[in-house]
């Protein structure tokens, strides 16, 4: 029973990381109605930047804050320079651009930082009071960080004028422009927030899987599954889906298919959701009158 409980709680901790990346995917989907396939590589590159700052002697939390701000700026810049000129391009062209960004960030990380696996420090001390034999301090901290980001984002989008303007720009750009909302700036802000959220997720996962250019490949797939399960257009649903995927991946991988086939769990979940309920648990079902 203790072993099952440990696997369940470990799945929740992993799900917190998937939830963070799923949240970043949803932010960009709401802004552009496209999936950013480079989200994982952008988070990975941000984590390398944090590692470089820490290795240079900067305190962890200072490096953390600097990385989040830099990731926000870079992601917003990508939207302005690369994505905005593509807003009328065919869907396939946009997909190719996202894949190109994935390859670019992956190659830049290997070029600047190498492909050697590097340890990354955890901000949560191993002997912290909230750690236990069932959940490490880092696992508890990763869950708290994911839930904290969800709460802050929810309050920002629901209770601030800027957040309301972002939601309006994402849902109805034409009407938003008529009432004076700068839609381009709102979309750029959405990309920036997604970049910052992805950076936090990368810094949470790096102490677990270690730091290398390939560390976010599987994480992005699980996060995509979580976003689809919860609803690709619903931030809260995506977070819920991330936790569900984390638990299912851990339990099924441990007791059913084995660790070698754990990644297939995400693929099965993606296919199953697309067949049974494409809109996800909390997503909107769009009905078009013809």
Account of the protein in words:
It is built from eleven helices and no strands. It is mostly helical and 290 residues long. It has a single domain, classed as ABC transporter involved in vitamin B12 uptake, BtuC (Orthogonal Bundle), CATH 1.10.3470. The protein starts with a helix and ends in a 14-residue tail after the last helix. The relative contact order is 0.19.
Compile the SSE list and pairings.
Layout: H1 2-32, H2 39-55, H3 60-83, H4 91-113, H5 137-159, H6 161-171, H7 173-178, H8 183-209, H9 217-230, H10 235-255, H11 262-276
Helix pairs in contact: 1-5, 1-8, 1-9, 1-10, 2-3, 2-4, 2-8, 3-8, 5-6, 5-8, 6-8, 9-10, 9-11, 10-11
List keywords for this structure.
ABC transporter involved in vitamin B12 uptake, BtuC; mainly alpha; single chain; 11 helices; 290 residues
CATH architecture: Orthogonal Bundle
Helix proportion range: over 70%
* CATH classification class: Mainly Alpha
- What do we call the CATH topology? ABC transporter involved in vitamin B12 uptake, BtuC
The tally of structural domains comes to 1
Sketch the topology as an H/E string, one letter per element.
Answer: HHHHHHHHHHH
Task: Report the total helices.
Answer: 11
Low-confidence stretches: none
Q: Can you give the mean pLDDT?
A: 86
Give the number of DSSP strands.
Answer: 0
Radius of gyration: 19 Å
The shape is globular
Q: Proportion of β residues?
A: under 5%
Largest sheet, if any? none
The structure class reads mainly alpha
Give the N-terminus to C-terminus distance in angstroms: 55 Å
């Amino acid at each position: 029973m203790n072993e099952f409980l440990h696997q369940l709680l470990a799945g929740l901790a992993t799900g917190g990381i998937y939830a963070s990346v799923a949240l970043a995917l949803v932010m960009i989907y709401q802004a552009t109605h496209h999936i950013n396939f480079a989200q994982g590589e952008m988070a990975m590159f941000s984590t390398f930047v944090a590692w470089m700052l820490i290795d240079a002697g900067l305190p962890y939390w200072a490096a953390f804050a600097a990385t989040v701000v830099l990731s926000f700026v870079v992601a917003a810049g990508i939207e302005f320079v690369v994505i905005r000129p593509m807003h009328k391009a065919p869907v396939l062209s946009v997909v190719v651009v996202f894949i190109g960004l994935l390859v670019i960030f992956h190659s830049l990380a290997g070029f600047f930082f190498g492909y050697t696996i590097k340890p990354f420090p955890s901000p949560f001390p191993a002997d912290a009071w909230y750690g236990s034999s069932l959940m490490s301090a880092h696992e508890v901290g990763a869950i708290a960080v994911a839930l904290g980001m969800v709460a802050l984002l929810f309050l920002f989008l629901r209770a601030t004028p800027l957040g309301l303007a972002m939601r309006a720009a994402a849902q109805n750009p034409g009407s938003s422009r008529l009432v004076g909302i700068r839609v381009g700036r709102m979309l750029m802000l959405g990309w920036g927030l997604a970049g910052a959220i992805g950076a936090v997720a990368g810094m949470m996962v790096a102490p677990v899987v270690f730091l290398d250019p390939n560390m976010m490949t599987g994480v992005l797939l699980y996060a995509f599954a979580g976003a689809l399960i919860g609803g690709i257009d619903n931030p809260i649903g995506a977070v819920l889906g991330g936790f569900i995927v984390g638990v299912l991946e851990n339990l099924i991988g441990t007791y059913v298919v084995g660790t070698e086939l754990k990644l297939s769990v995400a693929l099965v979940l993606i296919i199953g959701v697309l067949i049974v309920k494409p809109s996800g648990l909390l997503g909107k079902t769009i009905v078009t009158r013809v």
